[in-house]
Amino acid sequence: MTGVEAFLEVLAGAGVKHIFGNPGTTELPLNDALVGDRRFQYILALQEIPVVAMADGYAQASGGIGVANVHICCGLGNAMGMLYNAWCAGTPLLLTAGQQDRRLVFEEPVLAGDLVSVARPWTKWAAEVGRVEDVPRAVRRAVQTALTPPTGPVFLALPVDVQTEACDRLDLSPPSVPDRRVRPAVEALHRAAALLAEARQPAILAGSRVTEAGAVAELVTVAERLGAPVLLEAGTAHGRIPFPTDHPLYADCVPLWSPQVRRALAEFDVLLVAGVNLLRSYIYQEPARPLPENLRLVQMDDDPWQIGKNYPVEVGLLGDLKTGLAELGDRLAEVMPASQAAAARARVERYAASRRAAQETLRTKMAAERERRPMTPLTLMGALAKVLPRDAAVVEEAVTTTNTTLERLGALADPAAYFGHRGWALGWGLGSALGVKLAWPGRPVLAILGDGGAMYGIQGLWSAAHHRIPVTFVICNNAQYLILKHCGDAMPLPRMAARQYLGMDLVQPEIDFVGLARSLGVEARRVTEPEELSAQVEASLTGDRPVLFDVAITR
Hints:
Layout lengths: L2 H11 L4 E4 L6 H7 L6 E4 L3 H15 L3 E5 L2 H17 L3 E7 L15 H5 L5 E4 L6 H13 L6 E6 H5 L21 H12 L4 E5 L1 H5 L3 H11 L3 E3 L17 E4 L4 H8 L4 E5 L21 E6 L13 E4 L2 H15 L2 H32 L7 H11 L5 E5 L1 H4 L2 H5 L8 E3 L7 H12 L5 E6 H4 L5 H7 L5 E6 L4 H9 L3 H4 L15 H7 L3 E5 L2 H11 L6 E6 L3
Parallel strand pairs: 1-2, 1-3, 3-4, 4-6, 5-6, 7-8, 7-10, 8-9, 10-11, 11-12, 13-14, 13-15, 15-16, 16-18, 17-18
Helix pairs in contact: 1-6, 3-4, 3-17, 8-12, 10-12, 14-23
């Protein structure tokens, strides 16, 4: 068996069915081996951004390993932004690249370079395989490392001669991932429960790792027992949704900037932090500390690096979030006195009334904007919310348009079916949506993309057409990098405050997304009316081919 055949054998043992790639000369042995191997579907993309984004989306949706193969130095360079996204998201991703034949290395051949040093900062583990005998062991270690909490991407470089060399002494055992359900320490759980049960005004800040641990239901139980509102990570780190958006205790994302964060958390005395990088700030503002000084923290995570990393905690709980939240909920039921349980129920009612009022205010604002043309972002999102199926997956890379509208309306029935950015290397959303669809072929997938971000990974449309992957793409077209203008206001910068912008408007010419999509084989149309958008999107989500809608919004 050759090295590349052994590589595929171990991947098959790990349950891998898709390999996302864009080949070059150093990857040709892999593509040659795949010709006769029916265990895998090779998903071709025309550039490395959609290659890695597809593997990222596939891994997040499936919960398994995503495998991407790119070209040597130049291909890895193109892939680095998406590798950074996977690193920030903790995606279990195996990124591989070919390496030059070892017999040529001393001559400094074309394309060769130190791939491992390039990939190492944004991976859990990176290595170059130097012997064919080590290929199976390297693949096993890579898969196991990627899937063991805290999960994350790994990298392997495979020299051409290692891929093609044959060996008859190979251990082809499949990867074995240890059971991740490791409970937090019992004593720490008891201290956490006591502190939360005594809180006058508790709250919860929850993040993506709750969803990825399958712990949404357990978090709901804890929130209801405490009568605590559940806030999500800020929009710039809002990856997966850890709490049902139609629940009365859903409290939207924390704000972006430090002063607003302090105001949002000022009323609370104890904060349970679960599965969150606390906090991933974006732009520096005073006060430097976004958390109120009197706020006591209980932090639970499966990543020891995150607990107490930036802010001291009263109780740190290291362990699986599903197991830990379940045991915390049970302990709260035991220790909360009747008076505190009654106060928690009263808080639930109060937050439910506040949520209903906020939704009514939002709907009133939507109605007031409905006749404006081009559509406002709120009108666009209302049109999508109106027809979004309960089983739909939503992939979002348009933060200034989406503005958590679907969440605030309670329109996302399945919290685990939302995928947002956590790294913000642009171009991720389009490819990620294709990966989600391949992982969940029976569910409709809607990708909501900004026009600027979409252009970083637009080549993924060709892959959608070529492999007939039925995703609905909505381009929120305001002909600008709007988030940069918002950030300029937040910093602040004098000329941007005077609305003088350089390099932030996508005009002269404007991008013809309809023509561009059609040139890549994807059906596309321009939509200007909300009723038309609702009807067209609803029909496309039950179709069997990719469709793109270019929607002009206010500028």
